[in-house]
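name: query_chain
kind: protein
chains: 1
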Amino acid sequence: MKMLVTGATGKLGRKVVETLLKSVPASQIAVSVRNPEKAEGLRARGVDVRHGDFDRPETLDAAFSGIDRILIISTDGDNDTRIRQHTNAVEAAARANVKFIAYTSLANARESRLFLAPVHRATEEAILKTGIPYSFLRNNWYLENEIATIQAVLAGAPWVTSAGTGKVGWALQQDYAEAAAAVLAGSGHENTIYELSGKPLTQAELAAILGTVIGKEVPVQQVDDATYAEIMKGADVPEFVIPLLVAIQAGIREGTLEIESNDFEKLLGRPTTPIDQALRQIVNEISQTKN
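structure:
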């Protein structure tokens, strides 16, 4: 059985491949990457490195040839770009007669009002249309998405948010990667949907746990969206990113990421990494980077 991971040089993809390599022979693992030179380290370990560019569908036919099971990791970019890229990948998987497609989707993708949801709805529908057995890995939110806020707190700033009491099911990228690897390399996951969410917490609850980890109280500054945008501007966040951050805060406030689920435990055979332990890991990584 040959399995393939797309976007394998990205943060999540790299972790998925490393997880697979612990239990699957390298000869059974292929990766599809836009820049194969970035995956030379994987090639040296026996992984089949293939060139695949979601913007050039002709490259995907060769990249997906002879593959039994594929993990399509969602790309970055605006919604229209991502929908086009994901559709290209799904159609190429169908042409290659892939037997199983796993896809990294979004929490409650079918009903979500989060501005990111249309991408994942469209991709899920494209996969369903192929008739190929699938698994939708509806990832809630990476704790690593909060690194910039955590860095600001470590530098003495308050935890700034306009998300109010909205809750998020944060978990480490490593937990999401291990869940994806379990589905790709495992059996019995045909035509499944997994809502992968940590225990839902408010921004204030997360900040309080961070305070325990770093040994000092973390003040939380609750603001409106306009003020949040101004603060982000003052923090030198690129202009084009600010509306996205504001939209995420608004989505959280409206409850789009408040998902209760034990699907992580089903796939990992354990709960997600405890949030205090996960935050400690991120704080340590930040301090190592600084040193």
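note: The chain has a mean pLDDT of 97.
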